[in-house]
Design brief:
Immunoglobulin-like, five-stranded mixed β-sheet, elongated, THSD1
């Protein structure tokens, strides 16, 4: 099993080795606060050839890894019959592995990168999450789908003004909230109106999480207004 994975970047394949392959269950959980919250459980069904090779591969669908964080993969014997009690032997048969799932990184670009005051043509912003190949599973809770603000900051005549974007946000007159972005859907284009660029100098476009409590990715792109 790999030590890490990127959310929504593809199925996760786990190799299981056993000399006998008793009936097994695989459970995927995600750490929520101090509690491991189960996401899905399904039986391990090895192919016939796996019984001779003593190895099989289990696929966990991409959509279950809908957000970054600490995940746990638990492999245990299936309970037999109606007796749900856990014996000491069952306890020793449980295998747990942790998996670090990272948020997909956004890519943000502005076209063109050099403009004049009140440009004749609008500036286009393109937002992409190149690692994302699938949506979250259908029953994902709203909290599993992150939200972002797309903000345009006026930096003045030096990009250093926007290096600390928290400081630049304190001057609300220099910040325009352009749109809200929800989830990691494909490639998106945004049209920035010409009247947003009425002052000479540098502008920075920030993608910022709406929830400051989550370690979500953020990024920025820049454009220079020459006069």
């Amino acid at each position: 099993m790999p030590p890490s994975h990127i959310a929504l970047s593809g199925d996760l394949h786990i190799q299981i080795t056993s000399s006998s392959f008793p009936p097994l269950m695989l459970q995927l959980s995600r750490l929520e606060g101090n509690i491991a919250q189960p996401l899905t459980t399904f039986p391990v069904l090895p192919e016939a050839r796996a019984l001779t090779l003593n190895t099989t591969v289990v696929k966990i669908p991409c959509g279950y890894f809908s957000r970054g964080g600490q995940y746990y993969i638990l492999l245990k014997k299936q309970p037999i019959g109606s007796n749900n009690s856990t014996t000491e032997d069952d306890q020793t048969s449980v295998i747990t592995r942790s998996l670090d799932v990272r948020w997909p990184m956004p890519q943000l670009s502005l076209t063109p990168e050099h403009i004049q005051t009140y440009p004749e043509q609008p500036v286009m912003a393109i937002l992409e999450f190149p690692d994302v190949v699938c949506p979250p599973v259908a029953d994902s809770p709203p909290s599993a789908i992150p939200e972002f603000w797309l903000e345009l900051h006026y930096c003045g005549h030096s990009l250093l003004t926007c290096d600390n974007d928290d400081d630049s946000r304190q001057n609300n007159s220099n910040v325009q909230v352009l749109d809200q972005v929800r989830g990691f859907r494909g490639s998106r284009q945004f049209t920035l109106r010409c009247e947003l660029f009425g002052l000479a100098g540098y502008y920075a476009l920030f993608l910022r999480p709406t929830a400051t409590t989550q370690l979500l990715p953020h990024t920025a792109a820049y454009v220079k207004n020459t006069a």
